[in-house]
Amino acid sequence: MNKLLYGAIGAIALGLSAPASAADLAARPFTKAPPPMVAAIYDWSGFYIGINGGGGTSHKCWDFVTPVTGTLVGEGCHNATGGTVGGQVGYRWQSANWVFGVEGQGNWADFSGDNVSALFALRNRSKIDSFGLITGQVGYAWNNVLLYVKGGGAVVGDRYRTYDLATGLEFDRANETRWGGTVGAGIEFGFAPNWSVGFEYDHIFLGNRTINFTGSGNFVTAPLGVVTRSERISQDVDIGLIRVNYRWGGPLIAKY
């Protein structure tokens, strides 16, 4: 009997102490849910200015134009190669992932080359000393990576000289500014909020043009300033450039 009494008393005491023990436990702390992640989106919109440098080559073919009949007689071809440095300025605007832009570019160049004429005892030499591009752009951006194509107009400054093979003296010369078209493509990386670096390839279509040469005054047959002959010269230009741009505008957009 006593054992049953003691057991009942113990069970009652244990039941009464359980709520008190639960009350003594520390309250569960309340924590605020973490904020949603924010992705920084690179924005290509804005005006930009930059510098560029690289190299290029121009393939040129010379054809002598006969005075009476105008028949073309081939003299040969050569590649005029060398380096270039210049600058560009433009504006881009971005809509979703698509980027549109316009740009003007001007470069000093030293693309030169020569070949021995197949018709005369002369060395035909050419040089591009400058070029400019005015283009529109369409691109697609993956955040801070931009892939684009471009196209528009081009202008090139050309110099032509011929040299006597026996003496090395200049025989006659010509200069021209030639207009044409251009297409190109590039990839650009935004490595800082307003800075980007990229690589670009451009091809300039210049077709062919008939040019009058004048004497250099070193030979009786080429008096100074007197027209000596006409040459039809065809050329195209290929250029590879590394570019660095600084842009004004909102470089980053917070997107949740």
Folded structure, characterized:
This protein has 256 residues and is mainly beta. Helix content is 9%, strand content 70%. The strands form 2 sheets. It has an 8-stranded antiparallel barrel. The chain has a two-stranded antiparallel sheet with strand order 1-10. Strand 4 (98-116) and strand 5 (122-142) form a beta hairpin.
Give keywords.
elongated, 256 residues, 1 helix, mainly beta, 8-stranded antiparallel barrel
**Measured on Cα atoms, how large is the radius of gyration?**
37 Å
Order of strands side by side in the largest beta sheet?
2-3-4-5-6-7-8-9
> What is the number of helical segments per DSSP (H or I, 4+ residues)?
1
| Coarse shape | elongated
Q: How are the SSEs placed, and which strands pair?
A:
Layout: H1 2-24, E1 39-42, E2 46-65, E3 72-95, E4 98-116, E5 122-142, E6 145-164, E7 170-192, E8 195-215, E9 227-248, E10 252-255
Antiparallel strand pairs: 1-10, 2-3, 2-9, 3-4, 4-5, 5-6, 6-7, 7-8, 8-9
Question: Nutshell version of this structure?
Answer:
The chain is mainly β. The chain contains 1 helix and 10 strands, in the order H-E-E-E-E-E-E-E-E-E-E.
